[in-house]
Design brief:
alpha+beta; Aminopeptidase; globular
């Protein structure tokens, strides 16, 4: 299922590139400075600022990747080769808001450099053998690192400015695939999957990714603005899990205010019919306004709301809330304040 989904995503971006085959590429932004070697980067004064920013971002990531500015400087010297590019997103004050660097090299050389990355220490020999078997000695675009300051993580425009020159670098040197890694569950991981990358190796804290059609992504980044690319990403990105709750919690709280709240998840899990987001929202809206309470004789299975729709949908699709099977007689009137206080804590206080 995962391979088929990845193929459909890559096919989607290939179709977008074919649709834009005659479009004129946009001008390169002046906010991004490009460097082909470490000496030029250091001469312009961006090397020290870039190393400091990467060290800060690693510290904010929860300590999963520990590095220092001196280690980053050595990485830049080691990973920037003859066919490399360093993209630096410069601010108006001369500071660095984002960075990314990549190199076009053989697959074996890229794997050898990735093995020295501090964030990939969890990979064993079998994992590296699996990565080496995919790339072999073909020209490969290796993304060694990418990062954005917290002030530049709104919208896709900063990320597009950094990615476009690197993908165009791979197309220029006839690389068909790209390799990079990301922290598992991070924003980069989600964007990579939405762009059509496949997870080669997955571990608890990191994911090694490969993209097999960088020419299509390079064309889309060169022609479309950031807003339209964001819309396209939203169409193919995996959906987020819907957070649901038990829609009958209010009814049970009114009937039995002494019922512990810790039992609510167990009751919801025991219900044979799941609760969907649409049903929960409709029940919440109906629960905020008073309505008549149906008697047990009137509330039959055939007369319950949504019974006819659920019967048409079939037993395999549960789209309705499990209504209470039996509604007991109303509690005495003197217990009404306690029951209302269980539902509305602010009124009780």
């Amino acid at each position: 299922m995962g391979t088929r989904s990845n193929y459909r995503t890559r096919l989607f971006w290939r179709w977008q590139a074919w649709r834009l085959r005659k479009a004129v590429p946009q001008d390169v932004s002046r906010s991004v400075n490009l460097f082909t070697n470490f000496a030029a980067l250091d001469h312009r004064g961006y090397a020290e600022t870039l190393c400091t920013l990467l060290e800060t971002l690693c510290a904010r990531s929860g300590g999963r990747v520990v590095t220092t500015a001196a280690d980053v400087r050595e990485r830049l010297k080691r990973e920037i080769g003859p066919q490399s590019c360093v993209a630096v997103l410069a601010t108006g004050t001369g500071a660095v808001g984002g960075y990314a660097w990549a190199s076009v090299t053989t697959g074996s050389d890229a794997v050898a450099r990735f093995r020295q990355a501090p964030g990939l220490s969890a990979l064993d020999e079998l994992d590296w053998d699996a990565v080496s078997a995919l790339v072999k000695d073909q020209p490969t675009l290796a993304f060694y690192d990418i990062g954005l300051d917290t002030h530049y993580r709104r919208g896709f425009s900063p990320l597009k400015l950094l990615l476009r020159p690197l993908f165009e670098l791979g197309v220029t040197y006839r690389a068909h695939s790209a390799l990079w890694w990301a922290q598992r569950g991070s924003a980069l991981h989600a964007i990579s999957l939405a762009l059509g990358a496949c997870a080669v190796v997955e571990r608890d804290d990191c994911v090694f990714l490969q993209h097999r059609d960088i020419a299509s992504i390079a064309r889309v980044l060169a022609v479309l603005p950031a807003g339209e690319i964001s819309d396209l990403l939203a169409r193919v990105a995996p959906g987020r899990p819907v957070r649901t709750r038990d829609a009958n919690a209010t009814v049970r709280a009114i009937r039995d205010p002494q019922q512990p709240t810790a039992a609510e998840p167990a009751i919801a899990a025991a219900s044979p019919i799941p609760v969907t987001a649409d049903t929960t929202a409709s029940n919440d809206a109906d629960g905020n306004r008073p309505g008549p309470v149906c008697a047990p004789a009137v509330m039959t299975p055939a007369s319950r709301p949504g019974a006819d729709v659920a019967a048409q949908a079939g037993d395999d699709i549960g789209t309705k809330v499990a209504w209470p099977a039996v509604l007991s007689d109303p509690a005495p009137l003197h217990t009404l304040p306690a029951r209302l206080g269980a539902v509305f804590p602010r009124l009780a206080s």
